[in-house]
Amino acid sequence: MDVADVPGVPSWFADHLREGGIESLYPPQAEAVEAGVTTGDSLVASIPTASGKTLIAQLAMLSAVQRGGKALYIVPLRALASEKREEFSAFEEYGVEIGVSTGNYEDSGEWLSQKDIIVATSEKVDSLVRNGAPWIDDLDCVVSDEVHLVDDAQRGPTLEVTLAKLRRVNPNLQVVALSATVGNADEMAEWLDAELVDSDWRPIELRKGVHYGQALHFGDGSQSELRVKSSEKPTEAIVRHTLGEEGSTLVFVNSRRNAEGAAKRLANTTAGWLDGEEKRQLAELAEEIRDVSDTETSDDLADCVEKGAAFHHAGCASDHRSIVEDAFRDRLIKCVCATPTLAAGVNTPSRRVVVRDWRRYSGEAGGMKPLSVLEVHQMMGRAGRPGRDPYGEALLLANSHDELQELLDRYVWADPEPVHSKLAAEPAMRTHLLATIASGFADSRDALLEFLEGTLYATQSGESGQLDQVVDATLAYLERNDFIERDGRIEATNLGHTVSRLYLDPMSAAEIIDGLQHTGQSSAGRTTRRKPDADASAGEQPEPAGFQQASELDADDEAGVAMEQQTASDGSDDLSAFGLYHLVSRTPDMYELYLRSGDREEYTQVAYEREVEFCGAMPSEFEEERFDDWLAAVKTGLMLEDWADETDEDEIAEKYGVGPGDIRGKVDTAEWLLGAAESLASELDLTTVTQVREARKRVQHGVGEELIDLAGVRGVGRKRARRLFDAGIETRADLRNADKSVVLGALRGRRQTAENVLEAAGHQDASMEGVTPDADAQPVEDRGDGEDEAAGEDQSSLGDF
Ligand code: ADP
Q1: Distance between CA 46 and CA 736 in Å, rounded?
Q2: Other beta carbons within 10 Å of 84
Q3: Pick from 7, 192, 327, 644: most CB atoms within 10 A?
């Protein structure tokens, strides 16, 4: 179908596509148009990676805008939101306004009501619905990208519920769901009352195969020679062979460590294939990478990139990741070793893909578990760049003839699995039922059940008996924690509204509230008694496991309650930042650090030494699972404490065995959870608000208490704040009136930085012209060698990764 023949889209669109080299629609795109995607019909498009799903989305959204409507594009990852934003920004010259919303959960996003196309993550859309963003009611078209992720235990339920809510608010809503090829696209179409385009067409041939011995064995039975030298591993041979054809290779492995190890080794292969200009550009890139953060990960990555290879995983800082992605797309980096994060949608095609590890460690399975066909096919789909490569090749590696056969059966010839709703999981139900009640979607048990009928879960579970049980258990939990009231109608309490608005798992909120109410609780009176169910006397059923009150403390008689209140007000004096970091770390909303072998002993000792600081009582060592969970939170809390105590990032990385991206992730989550704790404490009139706020600010900036003010000045950050402080500039006000030579000295002679910082602090004359740095103000670590630049560390502020 020629682009000019597409009905319903704005007249400029065909020319715009032609300018971008698109003359006619790909077959699945044409099928989508025939199914009515440009005339407002809902559609599920289940088609392979790189087969032009984005254009289907654009056709749907632009035709909705052409009809005077408004469209929403839901992405699974923040990184994709910016990528899509860039893609769609080309429409702005035709008067189509684009808005992106990924940030702060509490933002009601009113400014978005002016936009024609809005791009947001599913979490953000969920929170906008909860906060009653008015424009949600005006939506005409919603595109859900990578909708097969409803199968994801962590994030799937949010997407599923969000789509159900959007459809309920706007019964005529056009839903366009874009999916990888999955086993049950027809079921998804049934769920969304949508037309189905289910295709395995690809714009460029993808040859799937297995390397074994000295040859590639393809799914169609053909073979081609690929020799592995005796000194080489198969992956090295494949990368070398691909370089010989001027192609690049993407290698998928199963862990961060493996990604780093493989990249280091493969860098020795790529290094020999670089020309002078490439070497120069790569050296520049390596410098940029070193500047992102001062950790070993950063250095290791820079060392690889200098030689033309890179690793890419969730432990890398996001700036690292985007530098690597861009340079790989520009063909400057010849080989990227990645964990599957890169397969999830970021557009990085390469000539060859090697799925080196097809098993991954699974805590649930207690060992290595094969990847799903869907995951492996997603990775394989990254092979072949249309217009650049004649075809793409995706390879698995076998060590034996049996394994060759197994891999062909398991992945090359196999169809992807069906996707299954994960909504029945407890955290998902807790969170979404409370949100559904709080935002007024449902005010009775029946209404809730009716709402849930609109989910994939209901489509898949068939009979509703199970749904009833899960809903009843969840409602009982929410009521017992005072998040809802049942008095004929079901309503959220003020507390429940706050919890839902804060986007917390109700269990996290219960844990935080309970912890804040029991600060400074020593273990002297600790018992293993459970808090009895408040309604137990009313003869209610005991609660199912996992739905217990957060606290272990007794509150069953009036004396107990009185004592608790006593403790609550007394305890606030003892509330330490560590206690609060531990508290938020043990909520289900924080992904705790793993306990490695040997950690148990070490952190058990810390736990006893610092027991008085905990908010709430420590579980007994005999309750192994809860105790281990407590220890993992101790480890996470200590990491946050180190961060707030200004410990160097590389030292933290080393001590806890994490990457800079992990530190940033934990810090961000802690900042959010402590912000939530602050709101909860003020909602409940607890005396601890101030301490919570201070702990939040310290974690936010990664500084001690005395630096909070300074570190809050734009461009200052934790390291510069410390240097300024040591030079006698202790507050924002000091900085505003500071002697410029002292500032310049403390900031290691960097004039531009010093000017920016002074300007941000509101200094009357920020110019550094003619100012000489005060030698006494120089950071101690720089003195002696005379040249501050020689320290080689251009890390202005570690707060800004
Ligand atoms: P995916 O299905 O993985 O989302 P994309 O939408 O990113 O794939 O498309 C992959 C590439 O194909 C993009 O570079 C896009 O510009 C190009 N493309 C999409 N549709 C067409 C078309 N009809 N003709 C030529 N190129 C196209």
Answers
A1: 59
A2: 22
A3: 644
Burial of 714 (0-12, 13-18, 19+ CB in 10 A): exposed
Residue nearest to atom 3 of ligand 1 (CA): 50
Span from the CA of 333 to the centroid of ligand 1 (angstroms): 23
- The answer to pTM > 0.85 is no
pLDDT category of residue 598 using cuts at 50, 70 and 90: confident
Mapping DSSP to helix (H, G, I), strand (E, B) and coil, where does residue 433 land? helix
pLDDT at 362 over 50: yes
Task: Give the single-character DSSP code of 788.
Answer: G
User: Above 70 in pLDDT, residue 758?
Assistant: yes
HSE at residue 529, side-chain half, CA atoms within 13 A, is 10
Confidence of residue 316 (pLDDT cuts 50, 70, 90): confident
Q: C-alpha dihedral over 708, 710, 712, 716, to 10 degrees?
A: -130
Q: Which residue has the tokens 């189905």?
A: 196
In angstroms, how far is CA 734 from the centroid of its own chain? 38
Burial (Cβ within 10 Å: 0-12, 13-18, ≥19) of residue 358: buried
d(CA 561, CA 723): 48
Residue whose CA is closest, atom 24 of ligand 1?
Answer: 22
The pLDDT tens digits of the residues spanning 257-290 come to 899 999 999 999 999 999 999 999 999 999 999 8
**CA atoms of 732 and 712, how far apart (whole Å):** 8
| Contact 26 CB / ligand 1 (< 6 Å) | yes
Rounded Cα distance, 418 and 560, in Å = 52
CA atoms of 438 and 506, how far apart (whole Å): 12
> Is there an atom of ligand 1 within 6 Å of 53 CB?
yes
